[in-house]
UniProtKB/TrEMBL annotation:
It comes from Azospirillum argentinense. This is GntR family transcriptional regulator. It holds the Pfam family FCD. The keyword Hydrolase does not apply. Residues 32-99 form the HTH gntR-type domain. Keywords: DNA-binding, Plasmid, Transcription, Transcription regulation.
Length: 253
């Protein structure tokens, strides 16, 4: 049964003004644009844990916040349901889905396979300026670690992995990887505030960059694999610390 919780609501977002000289879009276009914006914002809230597993999503409140009817909200919710991020109970409401613990090992393996392929190519092909870009990103990670900004670190982390795909010459791998790891990202946001966690991730990233700079593909592949596997072990610890955030399952294997 879904939890009996009450949404506290969120600040209204005023729609952008339309210049007088610009013809307003047709109703169907407005609906599509609104649905995309609502989907994007709800998804970001769910992945970042601003909306926690089990929290209700009240369509009326979301519609009021965006100044739209419930139709684009329902469209956004259906997309999120397809991704496994929300659950819809016809007689009870819509709730942020719990993290499916049983699905994480497969998602992690797919991610690992994709990223090890790109890091191998990156180690073979990286130019000096590209290595410098990775090192600059590492410095950004250290800065946000020092500031204690977990969200800023997550953004720098994402940019780091995207940059590796770019250097490899296969930037299209990264959007696929992002889709695969959406449930893992929810767990990552849980782990980042833990003392010492960011320093550990930075050290793992430094090992990856060092291997790329040395044009050592095998070492780069191993360093990235160790980095991703380490996250899975941390997630298992988080499951025991916050069991209500996860769907019931056996321990990670």
């Amino acid at each position: 049964m879904p939890p009996d919780q009450i949404l506290t609501g969120q600040a209204a977002v005023a729609p952008a003004a339309v210049p007088a000289a610009v013809k307003p879009p047709r109703a169907s276009q407005r609906g599509t644009t609104a649905a995309a914006a609502i989907y994007r914002d709800l998804r970001a809230d769910i992945v970042s844990l601003a909306r926690k597993p089990g929290d209700p999503i009240v369509e009326k409140l979301v519609a009021e916040a965006f100044g739209v009817s419930r139709t684009p909200v329902r469209e956004a919710v259906l997309r999120l349901a397809d991704e496994g991020l929300v659950e819809v109970f016809p007689q009870s409401g819509t709730f942020v889905a719990r993290i499916p613990i049983a699905a994480l090992p497969e998602a992690n393996l797919i991610r690992k396979t994709l990223e090890q392929a790109t890091v191998r190519f990156a180690a073979e092909r990286a130019t000096r300026s590209q290595v410098a870009a990775l090192q600059a990103n590492l410095e950004r990670q250290r800065e946000v670690d020092a500031s204690g900004c977990a969200d800023g670190f997550h953004q720098a982390d994402e940019a780091f992995h995207a940059l590796i795909a770019d250097i490899a010459g296969y930037p299209g791998f990264w959007p696929i990887t992002q889709q695969v790891k959406v449930q893992i990202d929810r767990c990552r946001h849980m782990t980042l505030p833990y003392p010492g966690r960011l320093a550990t991730v930075i050290a793992e990233h430094e090992a990856i960059v060092a291997a790329i700079a040395d044009h050592d593909p095998d070492r780069a592949v191993k360093a990235l694999g160790d980095h991703i596997d380490g996250l899975l072990l941390t997630i298992d610890d988080m499951r025991h610390a916050t069991p209500l955030y996860f769907s019931p399952a056996e321990a990670l294997t």
